[in-house]
Design brief:
The chain has helices spanning 33-36, 40-52, 70-88, 93-98; strands at 4-10, 13-21, 26-28, 31-32, 59-66. It is α+β, with helices and mostly antiparallel strands. Strands 1-2-5-3-4 form a 5-stranded mixed β-sheet. A hairpin with a 2-residue loop joins strand 3 (26-28) and strand 4 (31-32). The longest helix has 19 residues, at 70-88.
Length: 128
């Protein structure tokens, strides 16, 4: 098996994921996972597809992340890893799909409208 590459997206974040056989090393933008995501919850979120399929020590993962915030980037990486695992072995698909890792969360920030302070917020109404 050679390198499998996929794309994961969430909000404004885009993750290009490269998965190859290895010993479980995860690199994000040329940094270790623990350095790039110091919060344990985000590290857990990135590793979720590998943990659910019991393949944490089987593959080396390299991720290029662009855009968004840290939460969106972690979720984009999770989706990219899940898609790559589906390409590697189709039998993993039902488990990943059941956990919701293959579903694109399409919620985006609503744009600000002209003449308003925010997307939905209006200026305070004054009767007099």
């Amino acid at each position: 098996m050679e390198v499998v590459n996929t794309v994961g997206r969430r909000k404004a974040a885009v993750a290009r994921v490269f998965v190859k056989p290895g010993n479980g090393k995860i690199t994000i933008n040329h940094k270790e996972l623990e350095v790039y995501f110091p919060l344990h919850i985000l590290q857990y979120e990135v590793k979720q597809p590998l943990m659910v399929t019991n393949t944490l020590e089987n593959y080396d993962v390299t991720i290029n992340l662009v855009g968004g915030g840290i939460k969106g980037q972690a979720e984009a990486a999770r989706m990219g890893i899940a898609r790559a695992l589906c390409q590697i072995d189709a039998e993993m698909r039902p488990v990943l799909k059941k956990n919701g890792f293959l579903m694109r969360d399409s919620r985006e920030v609503e744009r600000k409208k002209p003449g308003q302070p925010g997307a939905r917020r209006k200026f305070q109404f004054s009767k007099r």
